Amino acid sequence: MSKTISLLRISGLCLIATAFIFFTGCQNQPKNPNEFSADIIIYGGTSAAITAAVEAVQSGKTVLVVSPDTHLGGLSSGGLGFTDTGNKSTIGGLSREFYHRVWLHYNDSAAWKWQKHSEYGNKGQGTVAMDGENRTMWIFEPHVAEKVFEDFVAENNITVLRDEWLDRENGLVKKDGKIVSFKTLSGKVFSGKVFIDTTYEGDLMAAAGVSYHVGREANSVYNEIWNGFQPDARHHGHFFNYKIDPYKTPGKSESGLLYGISPEPIAETGSGDNKIQAYCFRLCMSNHPENRVPFPKPENYNPENYELLGRVFDAGWREWFNKFDIIPNRKTDTNNHGPFSSDFIGMNYDYPEASYERRKEIIKAHEDYQKGLLYYVANDPRVPKEVRDEMQNWGLAKDEFPDNNNWSRQIYVREARRMIGVYVTTENDVLAKSEVPSPVGMGSYAMDSHNVQRYVTAEGFAQNEGDIGVHPHEPYSISYGSIVPKKEECSNLLVPVCVSSSHIAYGSIRMEPVFMILGQSAALAAKMAIDNDQAVQDVPYEALKEMMMERGQVLVLQRDNK
């Protein structure tokens, strides 16, 4: 009897144990491997994405960076190494930390592979390369910037999911005015409490149904002077200072216009349109014989596409090398300069809202245009011999972008979508004509718009339009309202790159140090919104201000700083 009871007892225990294992096994089944969650979800791989992520972690929040890009840092690691700083005293927090780490890198003699540090000195057209007093450096090679961003990620144990593209058509789930989650094209789903869009294009913002604008507003919209069509502005010298015939056969309009010239009629000054300033690649070149790659000839190369430049050379223009800005190790950050250069004017209007496939086509067209331009200047007999000979001393830097044939991975998206948020920054804020509420950072660079179109003047000559460079008298504050959408549109999204501003004001805001500043402030606001269980629009500004100040952010003009 006792033996039977013992056996029953053992059998019962086995059944209970089996049931427990089954139950707990069901409870601990691994989650769907395609589902991810965190307090803060950051979409984008730009410099703003990384500073936002670092701040989120250091503020005690879980964070995921969902990056369409494989390489981090956007333009800062994509060739724009000759930093547009403006007044450096406005650059604080993690943005300044980035430039401090660049300074530390170049203080090591091992950083100077292709030249001695003493040979480089402190070069820069108004930009001091190395500021020993403040332990910052503002001019750098692309791979150095990328390493700093990767160090930020590694030191803070930030999870970055790369090559993940938002499903812009059907991927975003929104409920009661809040983003619940979004899906990427790979099928991964990301859920969070607050989302931050750090892309240059504003894709997450647009998918969330937030209001935005593409193109130039008319001056009448925000009571501005420098917005809209500006045929008489000649601020940078990026215009035709010579009477250049625009027709394939000079003097004969029936022969058709040269490549890149628009047949559209001239608009009214100050009128709005859907056009945006030109894009290009910021090229890293080298003139060191052991570290240069000859400029490649694109498969679809057509020298006729550069006939307009040939005519500019014929007229006597010789400023081709004026924006080969020198960065360490005998390299350049080469930017657009003059009437015909690396800006592919008028060829990007549909980029901001284009499909991924169409964007790839636009980017490829820009790459082909720019590669063809370099090949033309270095090789075509139409180019003056002294220019050709000098150009042949240059090539693409062999040790930059090695996985992309030494070509920058990031096209310079100078503007795309711009949010219409709680507060719209305009030229009146930049020019200190209005008081900016609730500052979360500062800007100081000129309102800088590259050319928007190339057309035929009433006199029958080729001309560029849209080149603006209006300098503020002093640094200006950027409002918290410019990085948050209207509450009724989305209450848990922050947008520190495609900020709420007019076209011409964005021309000043759109600098990499500013994006890093706004990225950090956005993360602090996200932390507060989560802690207080409130909309990002309801974050108490005075408490946010205190935290920003603790992090070293500069919010208002310090008149004793120079």
Which features characterize this protein?
three-stranded antiparallel beta sheet; single chain; seven-stranded mixed beta sheet; globular; alpha+beta; 28% helix; 24 strands; 562 residues; 14 helices; FAD/NAD(P)-binding domain
What would you say this structure looks like, in words?
The chain is α+β, with helices and mostly antiparallel strands and 562 residues long. It has a domain of 292 residues: FAD/NAD(P)-binding domain (3-Layer(bba) Sandwich). The protein is built from 14 helices and 24 strands. A hairpin with a 2-residue loop joins strand 6 and strand 7. The longest helix is centred in the N-terminal third of the chain and has 26 residues. It is globular. The N terminus is likely disordered.
